Amino acid sequence: MAALAVTAAQVVAPAQAVAPAQAEPRAAVSSQDGKYFDAEGEPIYKVDSNGKVDWYTYSGFQRYSAECMRCHGPDGMGSSYAPALVNSLKTLSYGDFLSTVANGRKNLENGQDKVMPTLGLDKNVMCFIDDIYTYLKARSDDAVGRARPPGHDPKPKAWEDAENACMGAPS
After folding, report:
1. Is the pLDDT of residue 68 over 80?
2. Of the residues 28, 35, 73, 87, which has the maximum number of CB atoms within 10 A of its CB?
3. Fold (CATH) for 8-17+28-163
């Protein structure tokens, strides 16, 4: 079963080096229970020629809109106090994304404190962190546009089971 939750090892692991800029977007090379993975085994989106996305990417759109948009702006485009994640995900590694979300970050830029809160205990974020990552990666790679995806695959039972387990609901 594909788990939605981040393991403790992923959250407390030291930040990985920033991945080099990639000439072409990563491609899905495998899938399990409707969740796609790239050659490195990291979650990745799947978008068909009509713009229909996999369930995890669609869930990421929903979760981003509910949990992240108020700071990072609509569609990951940034705001006056939080960076454009569509730009950040062009170079930020999956591991660094997980670490930043879970552990937070504080930057002093142009005389202003910019603070990413620690969200490692927020189930509304961490139970869906891979979903949020795949949505933002799809936005960063221009695989999906600045609106709700036009369609999505059905919700896999494995996703629903993992959501219930992570959120503490009966399955």
Report:
1. yes
2. 35
3. Cytochrome Bc1 Complex; Chain D, domain 2 (1.10.760)
pLDDT digits (tens, 9 = 90+) for 35-58: 999 999 999 999 999 999 999 999
Domain boundaries, the chain: 8-17+28-163
- Give CA–CA dist 30/44, Å, rounded: 10
The predicted model scores a pTM of 0.81
- 59 with 131: CB under 8 angstroms? yes
Fill in the amino acid letter for 113: D
Q: Which of 75, 83, 69 is CA-nearest to residue 115?
A: 83
Handedness of CA 73, 76, 82, 84 (dihedral sign): negative
Rounded-to-integer distance, Cα 25 and Cα 41, Å: 15
